[in-house]
Amino acid sequence: MALIIEVNHLSKKFNDIYAVNDLSFTVNQGDIYGFLGQNGAGKSTTIRMLLTLIQPTSGEINLFEKKLSTHRSQILQQIGAVIEKPDLYKYLSAYDNLSIFAKMSGIKVSKQLLMDQLQMVGLKERAKDYVRTFSQGMKQRLGIAVALVHNPALIILDEPTNGLDPQGIADMRNLILRLSREMGKTVLISSHILSEIELIANRMIIIHKGKKIVEGNVAELLDPAHTFIEIDTLNNTHSKQLLLQSKWAVFLQQHSGMQLMMNKTEVPLLINYLVAMGVQILSVNSSHSLENYFLSLTMQSRHVEAFAN
Amino acid sequence: MIKTLRIIQVLFALLTGFVCKAQDVNTLIAKVKFNIDKVNDYQAIARMITNVSFLKVPDADVTVYFKKPDKLKIKNEKGISFVPKGAVSINLNNILSGNKYTAIDAGTDKIGNTVVRVIKLLPEDDNADVVLSTIYIDETALVIRRAKTTTRANGSYQLEMNYGKYAAYGLPDKIIFSFDTKDYKLPKGITFDFDDGTQNNKTTEDKAKNKTGKAEITFSSYLINKGVSEDVFK
Amino acid sequence: MLKLLQIELFKISKRPRTYIAFIAVAAIVSIFQFAFKVDGQSYMDLMLQNVKDTFTFDRVQAINGYFMCYIILNTLLIQVPILIALIAADSISGEANMGTLRLLISKPVSRTQIILVKFAAATVFTIFLLLWMAITALFVSLFIFGIGDMLIFRTKGDESQILLITRDDIMWRYYAAFAYATVALTVIAALSLLLSIFAENSIGPIIATVCIVIVCTIISNINVPIIDKNIKPFLFTSYLVGWKGFFYIGTDIDGKTIKGSLENWPAIRNSLFILIAHIFLLVTAAVMVFKKKDILS
Asked: Nearest CA to CA, how far is C149 from chain B (Å)?
């Protein structure tokens, strides 16, 4: 299966703060890839780096198996994106907006193509109306039309359901599923709501404070049987080395220990393995599911916000 | 030999001067005026070259209109021309009009190779603008070759005249009119000028030298006594 | 590139603010024309107040279309930078403010291209604005006031001059002057464009551009030798009024004007070079800054 996105050790520093810190992940062809994290987790910064809006401080991005830094133009032709709000030229009509961005994407533009596109998002009747008269939902749909007009292979949607009513959210979800299933598009969708990703994505990543927490198949990660484990040992560095050689993946190492995700039934096996390798275990906590963990992150950041306020 | 000739020459000059003096300068003026009076009006085509330090203008083709007794107008039909106000005095009638002056003989002088009689005219009216006129008359041709006028309000000016085929009418072919000009000063802050860096290359000496303006009028043809409409003087 | 420029011009043409500049020019010009039609003689009298005693000249002819255009340009070309800034300073900041910059950058178009196209569009706008000025200030004035010889009132160093250019020697000077003004105002456009990269709404760069122009113009007009020699040559505003150089007709030693000549063509040419160098540097700086910029809007 072709790798559509391959991000290796990507970092972005603003002043002295890492917005994205040593982030690596891959998106395969046909994936609906959920990009999950709190506001300020580094989702937007990552997406902006994928779209060349922001230059990485370090690390490498490959898209369609080509280096983004050297094949920018070629790669961007195959990407359609809605970044944050679907902002468009308010003083132009829906048709003109679509036409401009289609031309900029380097495709041959016909009236038929543009009208078909507008029809797809249900804006055919409003083609000649100024965007400034549009509701948030209509702008979102027009933004989608702009993202899709040049028939890209990869679609990047940054918080596409923001500001939409429940019906709009449902419509968006259906559209994304259709793009993936019927048209074989690869979709990267960011959100701060786990349930939203859970409903449509097949793979996902959770990032927090610019770092990867976990990446994997949604079904597996959200399996209630899976548990979130924190292990602290006498020598965490050595332990991590050992774990990396095992079948269990460590996705986060902190000074207090390591965090792993696994099926509950595997916890004794893990402990046995470490003991057999001579590791002296200080503590093992197997407290909650990923969902709970993500929720705790949310709570944490809210607490911080509450304190800050 | 040469010395003797010189002495004779000087004696001759003195003698003629004496004779003329005896003839009375008023008679001489009357003779000159007789020629001038033959012209009731004229319309002349001329070229005017203005030389004033602050004026940068091209040569202008002008038409000069005159009508007795004292109407004179210099017109540039095709464009704008700066005409010195005193230039109306190129109409010699203005200088010699009436008999309201006292003519005083001031001897002879030379303009080029021509011996001329110098006559000072003092207006009888103490309030007249003209304080003093000095005219230089070519006694053979009976024309005024030079005229210097000092006025109360308009400074002094000088006329230098060369004659040709219209000499019989007392009309010159060429007039060089010299006059006093003030420095031109634009009201401050009106223009934002392009400073091309060439500004301060004039010395103060240059500036002082250029206080006199000149207008050189060369006539190519006159239409004499064919009638001139009053409208042109409006 | 051409396609991108078309898109950019299309966007500019659809914006209401584009037409503010054209309306402003038309308004200022017609106010001038009205005022001079009604009472131009007062202005003439003011300019000629201390030659009135020595000279007479045909006054009606002096206020003609050519003269009017010069008077209007003299005033207008000081204000036009604001109008240019209105569009050029909005180039990047406006897109950032609207949120469209994200989309623009994520298209397969290089940032260098974006800046160059924005600059080209601002230049086209400048050209159109000057064409509009030529139509309103020159051709409409010629229609209203007629043609005639042209008087130029000028301060050169510490002396004042009156130049007279004959009517058959004027038109080419206007074409050259408008061409020069285009280059001069393109410097403003380039400056605005550079400033617009740093901001996320257009007000800041517009004000910054105008402030820079005003401050530099004031310094350019301080007639103190130390400034004249050490600072003036380095201010682009010293060269903005260089278009007037085309109306400083050359003279011979007697002060007689020479038809078709310029008093100091090398000075005009040097000014042009300096302005073009400014454009080149400003646009290069804009490209470099923009290439490095993280789009966070």
From this structure: 5
Given a cut of 60, is residue A120 above it in pLDDT?
yes
- Is residue B165 included in any domain, yes or no? yes
Domain count, chain B: 1
Identify the CATH number of the domain in which residue B90 sits.
Answer: 2.50.20.10
Rounded to whole angstroms, the Cα distance separating B230 from B73 reads 11
Verify that A91 and A185 share a domain, yes or no.
yes
Residue, of B90 and A83, whose pLDDT is higher: A83
Interface of B with C (CB under 8 A): 49, 51-59, 75-76, 78-85, 153-154, 179-187, 190-200, 202, 207, 213
Task: Identify all chain C residues contacting A83, using CB atoms and an 8 Å cutoff.
Answer: 102-103, 106
Residue B14 located in a structural domain? no
pLDDT at B91 exceeding the cut of 70: no
Our count of domains for chain A comes to: 2
Closest chain B residue to C165 measured between Cα atoms?
B57
Minimal Cβ distance to C259: which of B51, B58, B76: B58
Looking at the DSSP assignment, which residues form a beta bridge with residue A27?
A: A5
Q: Which residues of C touch A89 (CB under 8 A)?
A: 11, 14, 98, 100
Q: What is the pLDDT at residue B204?
A: 44
Give the residue numbers spanning the domain of B144: 25-185+207-226
Compute the distance between CA of residue C225 and CA of residue B197 in angstroms, rounded to an integer.
12
Last residue of a domain, one of A192, A208, A224: A208
**pLDDT for residue B151:** 80
Whether C118 contacts chain B with CB within 8 A: no
The CA distance from B217 to B223, in Å, is 16
Residue B190 pLDDT > 60, yes or no?
no
Q: Between residues 101 and 160 of chain C, which touch chain A (CB distance below 8 Å)?
A: 102-110
The secondary structure element, H or E, covering residue B132 is strand B130-138
Chain B residues with CB-CB distance to C149 below 8 A: 79-80
Chains that touch C (3 or more CB pairs under 8 A): A, B
Do residue A101 and residue C107 have CB atoms under 8 angstroms apart?
yes
pLDDT above 70: residue A270? yes
- Nearest to A81, CA basis, from A96, A63, A57: A63
Q: Scanning every residue of chain C, which has its alpha carbon at the shortest distance from the alpha carbon of A87?
A: C99
Give the sheet arrangement for strand A79-82, strand by strand.
A79-82, A154-158, A186-191, A32-37, A203-208, A211-217
Structural domain of residue A300, as residue ranges? Answer: 216-308
Please report, rounded to a whole number, the percentage of residues in chain A having pLDDT higher than 70: 90
For B192, which of C61, C78, C163 is closest by C-beta distance? C78
Answer whether residue C185 shows pLDDT above 50.
yes
The interface pTM score, or ipTM, of the predicted complex is 0.85
Domains of chain C, residue spans: 2-292
Q: Are residues A83 and A142 in the same domain?
A: yes
What pLDDT band is residue C47 in, cutting at 50, 70 and 90?
Answer: confident
Tokens of C254: 């007697």
The verdict on residue B197 lying in a domain is no
Residue B194 in domain: no
Q: CA of B39 to nearest chain C CA: how many angstroms apart? A: 25
- Count helices and strands in chain A by DSSP H and E runs: 11, 14
**Chain A residues touching C103 at Cβ < 8 A:** 81, 83, 87-88, 101, 146
Omega before B69 cis (within 30°)? yes
> Do A104 and C99 make contact, defined as CB atoms within 8 angstroms?
no
Please tell me the distance from the alpha carbon of residue A294 to that of residue A261, in angstroms, as a whole number.
Answer: 13
**A260, β-bridge pairs:** A229, A250
- Tell me the mean pLDDT in the region A141-161: 91
Instruction: Provide φ and ψ at A286, rounded to 5°.
Output: -125, 80
Shared domain for A232 and A163, answered yes or no, is no
Last residue of a domain, one of A159, A177, A208: A208
A124 with A260, same domain: the answer is no
In this predicted structure, which of A8-22, C39-53, C165-179 has the lowest mean pLDDT? C39-53
Residue of chain A whose alpha carbon sits nearest to that of C3: A103
User: B75 with C60: CB under 8 angstroms?
Assistant: no
Q: Are residues A37 and A162 in the same domain?
A: yes
